[in-house]
Amino acid sequence: MRARKRRLLFGGALLLVALPAAALGLREAMTVPCRAVTGEIVCHGPREARRVALTFDDGPTARGVEALVPLLKERGVTATFFLEGKAVAERPELVRALVDVGHEIGNHSWSHGHMAGLGSADYLEELRRTDAALMAAGAPRPAYFRPPYGMKFVGLGHAVSANGQQMVTWDVEEPGAGAGAEAYVDAIMAQVRPGSIILVHPMFASRAVEREAVPILLDRLAAEGYAIGTVAQLLEGRE
Ligand SMILES: [Zn+2]
Prior knowledge:
Blueprint: H1 2-31, E1 41-42, E2 51-57, H2 62-74, E3 80-83, H3 85-90, H4 92-99, E4 104-107, H5 120-136, E5 144-145, H6 154-162, E6 166-168, H7 181-189, E7 197-200, H8 208-223, E8 227-229, H9 231-236
Parallel strand pairs: 1-6, 2-3, 2-7, 2-8, 3-4, 5-6
Helix pairs in contact: 5-6, 7-8
Bound molecules: zinc ion.
């Protein structure tokens, strides 16, 4: 009896240690860009060639699109825009403006919620409604999905595969708020390697630093000999 009690106590203590550790591990796997809980995830391209993909998340907003389209065009750069279905349905002409000049469009969910604890039907609905809105706006069906907040829930990973798409995150993070444009670019360049996928949030009114940083970033990448393109160009090794 006493031995059994000791075993139970020991088991309980072990659980107290193991459960939070397991939960922490799972949380880390869900939020660290390069780790998948289920399914495959891409967070960078081939490391051999001096190429990077430039990815812009959220929106579209008129502010973001009108700032980026001319300056990318000026430098002959195409990029990947991960757009939210709901915002796309409200401003389809902004998608058209991106597609018409050769940018790639990815799926960034319909509602941009945290997507915690949804059923597989809800995850699929988030993906399919967004695909439909993008295609109605004139974009090809997206090959890539980027999870809002980088949260890669188990059911979401399954839904992305079931929807025939590839989950794409990033290996270059933005610095926290407060950096000026030059410091922002320094922080990005410190992480960039051949094959990197760079994440920038340029769409909202609060993101003036990001919009100011993009031309500086493009110049710095070019000066360091990087070819800049879309996720598809990076992964497929295309010009
Ligand atoms: Zn987002």
